[in-house]
Each structure stands twice: as structure tokens, then as C-alpha cells.
């Protein structure tokens, strides 16, 4: 069947439109048995392209489709007249979009899997606004609430919707008028909803950026946080007289600075709207000037790393595509070392072996391709997913280096992989230790050591040579990482400046004020694996490695529980309690209730292996020593593994000056947290340079407090410090 035609199925479904080779292919209308109607483009029997579908529940979707699911720009109108316009992915609202409810509420911001997830603002029907961040549909992090009648800074809307002509602000009238919409044809090149040009809406944000957006110097509103759709009507201000209303709008309306944790308000303070506007406007301009070089910056054309990114993507696509069809086999000794490599020249015009490209000419080296191919298989990383994550249509994002090495970090758009530039000696060390590393990660599938997936070099003739290693991102999770720590066990220089600290700052040893209580069996497994990993690193004469620790704080009914520990009358017991830095098990009388462990169900959690995990599911005594999943109320269900999605209790002892009238009582804050941890920075040998550095620093500081010590002492000190961070419960 080819051409225009009509098909009737025995079930009652009907299709009328283009047919090609027996497939629904082209444009046509399908009338489903359930009463649904789809009118638009088809490809090989599947909705693909522009189309409109009316559902049995009277909902209507108008927009782009891909492989039978809504993907791209589209508009969905519910039967109750709620409307969403924006980006879709795999049939769900994902990316930048605007939702307007029938009651007049409106949200403009970032979505993920149908939930608000990222930065945005919520406009209430009474005229109040909240600017902040959301995580899985819940407010999470700091934000600003403007009561009805407040004066809003124009800059707040500069990153919002831009309508057809000029910088018209997004408003219900211009956005959501549905009159005559359904009678308008869909145009492939320009998709417009009642005068709202979606091409202009998305032109400023070609991709959703996950870098933080600061409204205040002390605030960071990252795109991985979240919100509850509850209207704060109790905080809206009103006045009955015209004079009072005028005064309200210009002088007395308060602006509320708020902080949420998983939808629960934990901090609020007020300020004058006028002074607040001036201060925020100033910071907005400052942030705008800093954005081009800020962390998490998408690399677009014109960026200093743009051609480097294109070369990297082209090289990885070439070598992974070349090695994947080769049959799997055991690695040989000849597969290791600097001579085991693929070398290729990529001229921009193309060659017999390479395709033409839009970058500059470059030389490409791929080290130990068979070894890293087997490592990716061992870590359950699919070759196609690997290439799509790094080399797909999306640009990489450049991160600033959190350490002293000066390395540049790139993050794939799906945040599964981190690409780090290496120095020449680091590349040599990795090649030297690769055989032992391969054996170690093959034997211990719960290893906490960084996962390596590829080692490459790009040489631009006469310009520069850049070396890269591709690693797994430890913080690739749907949960918001509220705190990050880099822990080495040393004390000299291991603190962070208190200025400009935000939730994306990587803190150090002396900044850590918490201890973490794990289930006993989990703690035993954790330190068993840490010891094995440290033994391996010690055998390779590696030092300067650290434990990267990420914390996700949960918010039960009360985010924190103050636990008071009554001292005994004995002076000795009192002295011991006062000198303790952590609470004993008896002192914890009110356990938090923000986490729940249940028996593991493979079908209820994501089966996609993460780029940083591979081990088995942990078991918990609370469910009969069975494998467990972690239930996060209002968020989801996660598989618990060593170093990944590990629930714990974080205890912080309050100083006496933080709690008034507490001379004889110790106070502790107890938080429910989810932990992510792994051992990073394993490419520094204890060579002659480090021995000289150790001798020099030992003259100025305590030799045990400096980072540079011999490998055996480094390993012992590292484990001892972590044992204090994760104390054993009595």
C-alpha cells in the first residue's frame, strides 16, 4: 500500500492519510478505539513530527512527537483548562516550560519527568511571586517571596519568556489565551501559541543549563533543587483604602527570604521590598557579567573550548565505534602501556578513514582501547549510551576546578560522565597502574575508587596538546546534593574560606562539623572496602587521594530534632560527656523519620547502571537481612549500594553559645541524610618531588598534619580520620 488511503481495522480503529510501503508514513489522522484522535505526522507507523492528539479524557496535546511520544516543544491542555507550554521529553514535561492553572496560578521554570525541578518562579493568582528552586516538585533551597503588591525588579524577567515583539513579560493574557488556538494550523518552522513565539522563548536557552543562578550573593539557586504548589495566602498583604494601597505598593510591602528543605519551610526573614529590589538588581547584573566563565557553563560556538569539545566528541565517537564491533576477549599484556593506542589524523576536509568535520585539524590518540572497552563492559556501560552521553547532539558543560591542580573538568549534558584534563605525569601514572587497577576493580565490584572509561590525547599541530580521562560522575543522582566535602585526613590548609560558600562549594576536612551513623553491617562493609582500596593505592605508591562525600539532607515533619542529653550526677561522667564530640547511641532518643527502608524490588527501581556504581545491593537488619531499597517520601525509591544512596543520620553537636541556658546539657542536631561517596584523585605518586615537599613542609608544620606523607602513613591516617567521621555505634 502506497499513497493516500484509508484503513479500517476490525477493532473499529481508522486511519486516513499517507501510506508508504505498507506503513503509516507521512501525514494522516488516526481514530483510536478508545475515542482518541491523532492528526499529524507519521513515520513507520509511529507518531513522529508535528501533530495534535485529543485524548479520551478531553485533554489535547499540540506539538512535536518523536517515536510515538511527545518530545520537543508542545502544548497540553487538560479538561479542567490547566495548560502547559514548553519542552517535552519521552512523553513527559522536561526542560523549560510554563504551566498555568485554571485558578490563575502560573509556574515558569525547569521541569523534569513531569515535576518542577530546577530554577523558576511561581506566580500566585493574587499577584504574589516566589523565585527559587524546586526538586522533584518540592521547594528546595533558598528563594524570595514577593507578597501581592510588591514591586518586582525588571531583571527578574530578563531570563524569562520573550514574546514576538520586544521584551514583553510572560503574563496570563499573552500566554494562555486559548481562543482560536485549535483552529490554527501547526507550522514546522515556527510554532506559535496565540502570539507567543516559542522560538523566541527558547532562543536564549538553547539548552537547559544546570549551573546555579544567584539572586543574592549568599544564595545559589541551582537547577537541581525543588517545590510544593501550595499558595502562601497567609502572607499576602492587602489594604482597603486607595491611600493605604498606594503606600503598600511602594513602602511597606515586605519581601520574604525563605529557605526550604524538601518542601518544608525551615527559615524565613523579612525585609523592605525597595531595599531588597535594589540589592538583588545589583547582584543580578554582577552575576550576568560572571556567567560566561561560571561553573557548569554550556560550551557553545564561540567558547574558548568549543573546538576542543568538537575534537573530543569526534575522537571518542570514532574510536568507540571502531573498537565496539571487535569480539570481546580477555586482555593481554600487549593491550596495556603507552604503545597500545589508536592514532589518527582528523583533517577538517575528511580523509579515507575519517569523516569531514567543522572543527580544526587535529591528531587523536586513544590509549589502551581494548582495556577501556572491557572496563566499560565490566562497569555495565553500554557503548551506544556512552557515545550518546558524550558525543550526542548536546554540548558538554565546563566546570571550574575545585582543587589546586588547575585541571579543567567537563560534564556531559546528562551528567553521567566527567571529563578531566590531565598533566603529562598523571597520564603516565595511570598507564603504569592500569594493569593492577584493571585487576582490582575486576575482583572488588564494590570498590570506591574512581571509575575510568577512557584515556585520550588531542594534539593541535603547533598549538597545544591536551590529555583527557573520562570518569564516572559520583553525583549523578536525581537527589539534590546539599553539601560536598573533600576529605584527606590531614589538617594543614584543609579549610575553606568562609566567603562565597554555597551549596556547590567543595568543603574540606576542617569544615566538616558532622559525624554520620550507619547501620553496623554497612559500616563494616564500607571500611572493609576502604581498607582494600587503600592497600591497592599504597602498593602503587599513591598519595594525595581523598574521599569525596556528598550529602542530601532530608526534611521529615521537622528538619532537625534537638536531642538533649542529661548528664549523670557523677563528675567523671559529666566530664566525659562535655569532652565528647559526638552523641552516643543512648543519647539519640528521637530518631528522624524522613527515610524508610523496604525490601528490594528490582522492578520498582531504576535498572540503568550508573556511571559511578556497579556493586551489589546492600542488606539491612531492619528488613530481615534482605536487600533493601530506600523510600524517600514525596520523591521516589532508590536502590541502596555501597557509597550510593546510603541513608544515615548526621549528628552535629551544638556549641553552648548556640543554645542559651544550656550549661549542663549537650544539644545535638540530628538530620536524615543520603550519602554518596568515593575515592578520587588517585594519580599522584610519592616521588622525589613529593619527598622534597614533605621535608620542606615538615620544617614549618607538624609532619603529621601535612598532606604529603609517605603512602603507608597516608593510608593509615586516611582510614583513622574516616573512622571518626563514621563512628561505630555502641
Automatic annotation (TrEMBL):
Region described as Disordered: 277-297
Residue span, PIPK domain: 302-726
Keyword Mitochondrion: no
Reaction equation(s) it catalyzes: a 1,2-diacyl-sn-glycero-3-phospho-(1D-myo-inositol 4-phosphate) + ATP = a 1,2-diacyl-sn-glycero-3-phospho-(1D-myo-inositol-4,5-bisphosphate) + ADP + H(+)
InterPro entries the record matches: MORN, PIno-4-P-5_kinase_pln, PInositol-4-P-4/5-kinase_C_sf, PInositol-4-P-4/5-kinase_core, PInositol-4-P-5-kinase_N, PInositol-4/5-P-5/4-kinase
EC number of the protein: 2.7.1.68
Record flagged with keyword Kinase: yes
EC category name: transferase
Feature: compositional bias, Basic residues: 278-289
One Gene Ontology biological process: phosphatidylinositol phosphate biosynthetic process
Pfam families associated with the record: MORN, PIP5K
Any GO MF annotation of the entry: 1-phosphatidylinositol-4-phosphate 5-kinase activity
CDD domains registered for this protein in UniProt: PIPKc_AtPIP5K_like
GO cellular component: plasma membrane
Keywords linked to the UniProt accession: ATP-binding, Kinase, Nucleotide-binding, Repeat, Transferase
UniProt protein name: Phosphatidylinositol 4-phosphate 5-kinase
Amino acid at each position: 500500500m502506497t499513497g493516500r488511503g484509508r484503513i479500517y481495522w476490525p477493532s473499529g480503529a481508522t486511519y486516513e492519510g499517507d501510506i508508504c510501503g505498507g506503513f503509516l508514513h507521512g501525514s494522516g489522522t488516526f481514530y483510536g478505539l478508545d475515542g482518541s484522535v491523532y492528526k499529524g505526522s507519521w513515520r513507520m507507523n509511529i507518531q513522529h513530527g508535528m501533530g495534535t492528539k485529543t485524548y479520551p479524557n478531553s485533554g489535547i496535546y499540540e506539538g512535536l512527537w518523536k517515536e510515538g511520544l511527545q518530545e520537543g516543544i508542545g502544548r497540553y491542555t487538560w479538561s479542567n483548562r490547566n495548560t502547559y507550554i514548553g519542552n517535552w521529553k519521552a512523553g513527559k514535561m522536561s526542560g523549560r516550560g510554563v504551566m498555568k492553572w485554571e485558578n490563575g496560578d502560573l509556574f515558569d521554570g525547569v521541569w523534569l519527568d513531569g515535576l518542577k525541578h530546577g530554577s523558576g518562579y511561581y506566580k500566585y493568582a493574587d499577584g504574589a511571586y516566589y523565585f527559587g528552586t524546586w526538586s522533584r516538585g518540592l521547594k528546595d533551597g533558598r528563594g524570595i517571596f514577593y507578597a501581592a503588591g510588591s514591586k518586582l525588579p525588571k531583571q527578574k524577567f530578563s531570563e524569562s519568556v520573550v514574546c514576538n515583539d520586544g521584551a514583553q513579560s510572560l503574563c496570563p493574557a499573552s500566554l494562555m489565551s486559548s481562543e482560536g488556538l485549535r483552529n490554527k494550523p501547526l507550522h514546522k518552522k515556527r510554532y506559535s501559541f496565540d502570539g507567543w513565539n516559542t522560538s523566541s522563548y527558547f532562543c536564549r536557552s538553547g539548552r537547559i543549563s544546570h549551573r546555579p543562578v544567584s539572586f543574592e550573593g549568599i544564595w545559589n539557586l541551582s537547577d537541581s533543587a525543588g517545590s510544593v504548589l501550595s499558595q502562601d495566602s497567609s502572607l499576602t498583604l492587602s489594604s482597603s483604602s486607595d491611600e493605604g494601597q498606594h503606600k503598600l505598593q511602594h513602602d511597606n510591602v515586605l519581601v520574604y527570604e525563605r529557605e526550604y528543605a524538601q518542601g518544608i519551610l525551615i527559615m524565613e526573614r523579612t525585609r523592605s521590598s525597595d531595599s531588597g529590589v535594589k540589592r538583588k538588581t545589583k547582584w543580578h547584573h554582577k552575576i550576568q557579567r560572571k556567567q560566561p566563565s561560571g561553573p557548569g557553563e554550556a560550551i557553545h560556538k564561540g567558547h574558548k573550548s568549543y573546538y576542543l569539545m568538537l575534537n573530543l566528541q569526534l575522537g571518542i565517537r570514532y574510536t568507540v565505534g571502531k573498537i565496539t564491533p571487535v569480539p570481546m576477549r580477555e586482555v593481554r599484556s600487549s593491550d596495556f602501556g603507552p604503545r597500545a593506542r589508536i592514532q589518527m589524523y582528523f583533517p577538517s576536509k575528511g580523509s579515507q578513514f575519517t569523516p569531514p568535520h567543522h572543527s580544526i585539524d587535529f591528531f587523536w590518540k586513544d590509549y589502551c582501547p581494548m582495556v577501556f572497552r572491557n572496563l566499560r563492559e565490566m562497569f555495565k556501560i553500554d557503548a551506544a549510551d556512552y557515545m550518546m552521553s558524550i558525543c550526542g547532539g548536546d554540548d558538554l558543560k565546563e566546570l571550574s576546578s575545585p582543587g589546586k591542580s588547575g585541571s579543567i573538568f567537563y560534564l556531559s549534558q546528562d551528567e553521567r560522565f566527567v571529563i578531566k584534563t590531565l598533566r603529562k605525569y598523571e597520564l603516565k601514572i595511570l598507564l603504569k597502574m592500569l594493569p593492577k587497577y584493571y585487576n582490582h576493580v575486576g575482583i572488588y565490584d564494590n570498590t570506591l575508587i574512581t571509575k575510568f572509561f577512557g584515556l585520550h590525547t588531542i594534539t593541535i599541530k603547533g598549538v597545544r596538546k591536551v590529555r583527557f580521562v573520562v570518569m564516572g560522575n559520583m553525583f549523578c543522582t536525581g537527589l539534590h546534593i546539599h553539601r560536598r566535602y573533600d576529605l584527606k585526613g590531614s589538617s594543614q590548609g584543609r579549610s575553606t574560606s568562609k566567603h562565597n560558600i554555597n551549596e556547590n562549594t567543595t568543603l574540606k576536612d576542617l569544615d566538616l562539623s558532622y559525624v554520620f551513623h550507619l547501620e553496623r553491617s554497612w559500616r563494616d562493609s564500607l571500611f572493609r572496602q576502604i581498607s582494600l582500596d587503600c592497600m591497592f593505592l599504597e602498593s602503587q605508591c599513591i598519595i594525595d587521594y581523598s574521599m569525596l562525600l556528598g550529602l542530601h539532607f532530608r526534611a521529615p515533619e521537622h528538619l532537625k530534632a534537638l536531642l538533649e542529653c542529661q548528664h549523670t550526677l557523677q563528675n567523671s561522667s559529666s566530664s566525659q560527656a562535655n569532652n565528647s564530640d559526638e552523641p552516643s547511641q543512648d543519647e539519640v532518643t528521637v530518631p528522624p523519620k524522613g527515610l524508610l527502608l523496604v525490601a528490594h524490588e528490582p522492578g520498582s527501581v531504576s535498572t540503568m547502571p550508573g556511571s559511578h556504581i556497579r556493586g551489589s545491593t546492600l542488606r539491612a537488619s531492619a528488613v530481615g537481612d534482605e536487600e533493601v531499597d530506600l523510600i524517600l517520601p514525596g520523591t521516589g525509591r532508590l536502590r541502596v549500594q555501597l557509597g550510593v544512596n546510603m541513608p544515615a543520620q548526621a549528628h552535629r553537636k551544638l556549641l553552648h553559645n548556640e543554645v542559651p541556658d544550656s550549661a549542663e546539657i549537650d544539644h545535638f542536631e540530628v538530620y536524615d541524610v543520603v550519602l554518596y561517596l568515593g575515592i578520587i584523585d588517585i594519580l599522584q605518586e610519592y616521588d622525589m618531588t613529593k619527598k622534597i615537599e614533605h621535608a620542606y613542609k615538615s620544617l614549618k608544620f607538624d609532619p603529621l598534619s601535612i598532606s604529603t606523607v609517605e603512602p603507608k602513613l597516608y593510608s593509615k591516617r586516611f582510614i583513622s580520620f574516616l573512622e571518626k567521621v563514621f563512628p561505630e555505634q555502641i
